[in-house]
Request: fold
Amino acid sequence: MVPNSTKEYSKLAKLYDTLMGDVDYESWADYIDEIMQTHHKDPIDVMEAACGTGSVLLSLAELECYRLTGTDKSAEMIEVAKQKVEESEYQIKLEPFSFRDLPYRNAFDCVYSVFDSVNYLHSEEELITSLETIRKTLKPNGLFIFDFSTPKNSLQSVDHLNEAEGESGTLRYFRKSWFTPADKIHVNEFEIEELDLSTKKVISSWTETHRQRAYTLSEMLSILDQTSYHLVAKYDGFDLIEADENSARVTIVLRCQKTQ
Reply:
């Protein structure tokens, strides 16, 4: 059976929580909370851009101090997130918007985006356009917090990510992962199969290919210099210590200072 190609985070949406089963979302939410509380005097209205299936949002909701909104360009991921929110005790608004088509204006004290979502933006132009769109959603002095993966992170993780597999319900996935340092593109290719559970035969199969551009810190800082944000901080990993060119993952904190 020849698998059908499908768009990013469509068929994978129902497998995403299995794929990310080893991620400590509570600690990640605590880290975002710490950054917001450190750099904003009174953050209330908060949006996660590229929220996926809503796991960080739900962990932040447990703190009971934010009004939360989540957006993601994948309608399938948003549907999974809505199911999880409905099963919880929390109120979180969820909408299928990408970085570039956010309709909000002057709405949020803080916007954040985690787990390499910005790495799906492959060019300087895409990044600047998305950053400026997000800036328009912020109230004056609002924060945009995002992390990105560097080439070092890809080189360290590619062997671990390659040839991984998992399953949930009637679906299972096989992942191949590779990184080409010359163009700094990290590819994760997923073969996804739907099974007849009674016979274990494959009913349907799809391929999802995810391409992410790894940025060095200097490349990202050069891009940020072309925006109207003020750089507040650049942190290494999950600590409030300064990132440098040896950092595998960098978290950036930007402030919107211009009146919208």
The chain has two domains: 11-151+215-256, 152-213. Helices lie at 16-19, 25-39, 55-61, 75-86, 124-137, 151-161, 217-224. The chain has a mean pLDDT of 95. The longest strand covers residues 201-213.
